[in-house]
Write a structure and sequence with these properties.
The protein is an alpha+beta fold. Among the domains are: 2-48; 55-99, Roll (SH3 type barrels), CATH 2.30.30. 46% of the residues lie in helices and 19% in strands. It has helices at 2-13, 16-51, 109-113, 134-148; strands at 58-61, 66-73, 78-83, 86-91, 95-99. Strands 4-3-2-1-5 form a 5-stranded antiparallel beta sheet, with no helix packed on it.
Length: 149
């Protein structure tokens, strides 16, 4: 036992406590830059996203519900979402993603006089790897009923 005390006293005289203190400080610095700082940055980004919400923005809730913002009550901290004609009220904290609506470009005289060309939207087509959406299934069911008559 006396050997342990003697060894501790010799290490303390050589600056052993100071090096231990430096190691502890370095661990806290590394922990700050790897855990605390990124967390604060992410929290600030989320606060900016929630503060920037406005009526008409497309959103996704934490439960995966997609909809459009109908109204925002900042005093109560709630958001009313229009999900295909169904109006649902959620807390602001339940919003995961906000996709702002793009502002309509200002039309000039040259743009209003030119006729608009029709474009083909490839995203509405179902490819081999995609499953049909609910709308596609409804139209297929209607076609099947018409064939049966």
């Amino acid at each position: 036992m006396s050997n342990l005390i003697l060894a501790a006293q010799t290490n303390a005289g050589m600056g052993g406590n100071f090096s231990f203190l430096i190691i502890i400080i370095l661990m806290f610095v590394v922990m700050y830059f790897t855990m605390i700082r990124p967390g604060k940055k992410q929290q600030n980004q989320r606060k900016t996203m929630l503060d920037g919400m406005k009526k008409g923005d497309r959103i996704v809730t934490i439960g995966g519900l997609h909809g459009v913002i109908d109204s925002i009550d900042t005093a109560a901290g709630t958001v009313v979402i229009d999900a295909d004609g169904i109006f649902l009220t959620f807390n602001r904290t339940a919003i995961r993603d906000v996709h702002p609506t793009e502002a309509a470009p200002v039309a000039t005289d040259d743009q209003t006089a030119a006729p608009k060309e029709e474009t083909h939207d490839a995203s509405s087509e179902t490819t081999v790897g995609q499953e049909p959406t609910a709308d596609d299934k409804k139209s297929d069911d209607a076609d099947d009923k018409a064939d049966q008559k």
